[in-house]
Amino acid sequence: MNGTHQFGCTSAPKGNVGIVHFIRNETDMNWLLNSGPHAPYAALLNKSDFNRATVQKLLDSGKVNGIMVLNNTDQILPDSFSPDDSCPNQGHGLYAKDPAYQSCSKVQWNQNADGLMMMDLSIPIFIINDASDTKMLIETCYEGHNQPHADGSARDYPLCAVELKDRMDGAKDSETCIRRTRHQLNLEPQGYCDPLGDYNVYGTVKALNNTESRPDKSVIIAAARLDSFSLFDGLSPGADSAIAGIITLLAAAEAIGKVKETIQAAQLSHDIMFTFFNGEAFDYIGSDRLVYDMTNMDFPKPSTKPYLSQIHLNHISHFVEVSQVAHRDAGKLWLHTDPLTKDKPEVKAQLEHLVSLFLEANSSLVARVNNSNPLPPASVQSFLKAILNQTNLIFPAVVLADHETVYTNKYYNSWLDLRSGINLNYTGDSTTWYDEDTQVATDLTEAADMVAKVLFKLAMNGTLNETTVSANKTTVKHLLYCFLVQANCTILKDIFDEDFAKNLPYSTYPTYVSVATSFNDFTNVVQQLLISFLGEVRYNATKETCRDNDQTVYKYVWMQGHEDHNGTRNESFCMRAAVNVSDAASKAFDIHDYDYKSGQYSTWTESRWAGNAMSIRLFLKPSKAFETMVLIIGLVILLLSLLLSYFVNKRVGVLFPHVPTDRPHVSYQAVEESSLNESTQL
Amino acid sequence: MDLKRVKNDEKLNLCRKYYLGGFALLPFLWFVNSVWFFQEAFFKPQYEEQRQIRTYVIRSIIGSIIWIGVIVTWVTIFQLKRADWGATADYMSMVIPKGEA
């Protein structure tokens, strides 16, 4: 839900029951829409057919009350699928109210989008991942009982039906469900929904503490976004939408980490803050919050102990954002700039300089987009929006992306934004994938290398040659494997302590930001990687002394280190870095009497659901006539047995000759009379 | 309490208490009064206090009917309009149904 609407799937409280109908082609579809006599149906779709047009057709027919999507690996992917808006986050960001650029009037970035996520579907949609479930549905259920005869006539009852249940507790909009959750008169409080949110990850190179002064315009922000989403819970791979950018920025951070002493030693150097924003797919939750915190002198949080020197909007000198970077558009990555600020005299020269640094670093890889085009959806929009009218605060900003105009990513924010979509196809045996060289790894390394060189030059004001800075392709290969194949991988096992490493999943992390009540493992993993890339080893610390003693400038973490060929880890160590997390939660839910329709902050919430709210059951459903007959027979038997027992009671003397039938009545009267007598005597 | 065992003046006293109590916005007292003393008021052989009891019972019945009318009307309006009233209706509610606007 957001401030004004509800979206997505729900079912009746006890689930929706429909007759299973498998739609493999146009004929199946038309049969269901035109002739199928046994409505309501539950449609079974191949993954390539699952899009808004199909869903809309099924909904409009009024004959369908549930949808199942088959997720077979052997099926072909649709050419494109994005359930997001064609103009993502259009109500928020820099151009939301700008007459020239609002609603993506210049460029519809996400042209493949069908906006399915932005619909109030109100029927359940399930994805069937398991192969044996799929087989059961198609062969036993559909082909065995439901498939129409060859002449197109429907089969007779009993038919195979499915009950799909995903009842959502929240309704209407965020304002309503949050109000209901907070206003509790009931002794057993019940929640309806929770705000979306998590944490941003940030890390600075220079680690200034709060007693050291931070000059104006001395921090370069290098940013990427942490999250994506999809229609299905737990399936939000975000390969290009988020992961490619994260890996590129992490690899750049590693390259900068190797030369951090140079930057730290130089008196007039700029600081670099690597920032990973969370909840960006839902109207810039993370970046909007960071801007709010910076504006209110609350970033990083002050403390009585020594803490990291605060960074406010006036401290930002440059902003380099890595957006989607897995593809290439006309063989290049593209530098996007903002037309509203680019010509302000305060930044014009610096922006040109920043762009020229990219072109110098790798002229064959990047090109600048026509500079009258607006920025694509990006975290930096939150910052520029806040400082648009304060010309002294404006800084040069570029967004690096794999598209000149419309997205090259065909599966933006969808469950199909998989590694196959960014052509991360391994050829060897799966045990060798971790180290396998791929074109994607080469491309991302090239991008990371360029970003690192630019950042270094910016930080050092061009006083040193950047040739010593280079991104490590091995890291990129490993991260691709860990984020897009399985998280249980060597590099992640090495940088965590035993407890966390032991629980690394054999699947990928979902990138959906989820509700703000928990700390996402994925965010934690990115934070730990950033610590390992920017940090320094504390050789004298043991596992027990490796903690953030009396300060919050540095975060200390224990890493179990690399496993040697004997399977033991002898080189565990303590590492510290000026890395931390900051709230990525919308202020809309903190402000009393916030106007949810104002569009100022993100208002996205997720409905709660009961523990037993999600289920699928398959069963054979007899005809209505049969069901009625069973009910009538039952009633008749009930009546007969009542009659029987009545007569048995009447004629009880036949069975038990010595029991006088009218005794109870007599005794009752006797008692009553005696008590009456008593009362009259009194 | 069994009215059969209560003396007639006690009955009148009781019926009056219930009738008067109903004015303290306690419609259930009227309702109970109308049911409980109905037989006493209309079907028992005549006795001295019966006229008075009958008056109280009739008034209690009228009161109950008015109250039932008021409550049924309110419940109907509230159920139909709860979603439209938004926050106001939520603040009136002890239990808000899940998954409904």
From TrEMBL, chain A:
Keywords: Glycoprotein, Membrane, Notch signaling pathway, Signal, Transmembrane, Transmembrane helix
Record has Membrane as a keyword: yes
Segments traversing the membrane: 629-648
InterPro entries linked to this entry: Ncstrn_small, Nicastrin
GO terms of biological process kind: Notch receptor processing; Notch signaling pathway; protein processing
Nicastrin small lobe domain residues: 1-169
GO cellular-component term (any): plasma membrane
Gene3D superfamilies reported in the protein's UniProt record: Zn peptidases (3.40.630.10)
Localisation: Membrane
Membrane topology: Single-pass type I membrane protein
Protein family per UniProt: Belongs to the nicastrin family.
Name listed for the protein in its UniProt record: Nicastrin
From TrEMBL, chain B:
Transmembrane spans: 20-38, 58-78
Membrane topology: Multi-pass membrane protein
Pfam families: PEN-2
One GO CC term on file: gamma-secretase complex
Subcellular location: Membrane
Chief site of localization: membrane
BP GO terms, sorted: Notch receptor processing; Notch signaling pathway
The UniProt record lists the keyword Transmembrane: yes
Origin superkingdom: Eukaryota
The keyword NAD belongs to this UniProt entry's keyword annotation: no
Keywords, alphabetical: Membrane, Notch signaling pathway, Transmembrane, Transmembrane helix
Family recorded in the similarity comment: Belongs to the PEN-2 family.
Protein name per the record: Gamma-secretase subunit PEN-2
Organismal lineage: Eukaryota, Metazoa, Spiralia, Lophotrochozoa, Mollusca
